[in-house]
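Extended Data, panel c. Modelled sequence:
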Amino acid sequence: MIKSMRRHWLSIALISPSLILLGVFVYGFIGLNINISLTDEVGLNNNDANFIGFENYIKLLDDPRFHIDIFNTIVFSLTFIGVTLALGLGLAILIDSKIPAEGFFRSVYLLPMAVSFIVTGVVWRWLMNPATGERTSGLNLLFDVMGLDFLINQWHLTPTWGMLGIAVPAIWQMSGYTMALFLAGLRGIPEEVKEAARMDGATEFGIYRRVIMPMLKPVALSAVVILAHISLKVFDLIIAIAGKQIALDVPAIYMWQTTFDAYNFARGATLATYILISVALFVIPYLIVTNRKEKV
C-alpha cells in the first residue's frame, strides 16, 4: 500500500512541471487573450482599457475584410485538404503495391516534410513566378519551353481564385505525410481479409472500394483533422510567397497586422480567438470520438 502511494505521488511529481507549464503558457495565455478581446485596448501605453463584452466579436462579423478572409480560408482549405487526401491515398496505394525501390520513393515523398512552410514558400515563390515575357521563370518557363502555353498563368495573382495557387505548395509539402498515414493504415489491414474478398470473386477495384476504404475511415478522419488545423491557421506560407495582400488575406495575417502593425490588441485578440474556435471545431469532436472508441 505504501509502495503504491509512493509511486502515485512520484508520478504526480514527475508530470507536475509539465502540467504547470502547460497551464501557464497555454491555457493561461488563452484566458489572457480572451480577456483582452473583451476590452477596447489599443496602443502600447493604454492603461485605460474598458470592458466592452462581445462588441469586438460582433463588429468583426460585419467587417468586409474578415469576410474576404473567411472566403479565402474556405477556398484554400477545401483545395488543400481534398487534393492532399486524394494524392496521399494514391501514393500510399502505389507504394503498398510492392513497387521496386519502395524505400527510396517513400523517402522522396516524405522529404518535403523536412522543411518549414517558410522554406517551401521561398522556393515556390520562384517556381510560381507570375511574370511573363523576358522575365518568365519557374514553372511558367517550363511550360513555355515544352509548348504548353495554355498552362502559363498568374498563379497566386489570379483574381478571386489566387488562393488556389497558394494551395499548390501546401499540397506538395503535406502529401507525403498524408501518404505515410494512409500507408500505415493499409499495412495494418490483414492480408487474409483481401484474400477472402478475392476468393469471393471481388476485383481489385472492388476490394479497395468495399473492403479497404471503409477500414481506412479512421485514418482519413485523422488526416482531415490534421490538415484542417494547418489550413485554418496558415500564415507563413502566404507571407513567404506573396507578402501581405488583401486578395490573399486570411485571419492569421489580419490578426498579425491588427496586433503588431496597428497595435489594436483587442481586435487582434478577437481574431486570435476566432482562429482558436475554428480549430477547436475540428479537434474537439475528433478527440471526443477517439476517446469513446478507446473506452469501447
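Residues 225 and 286 are 7 Å apart (CA to CA). This feature is highlighted in the accompanying rendering.
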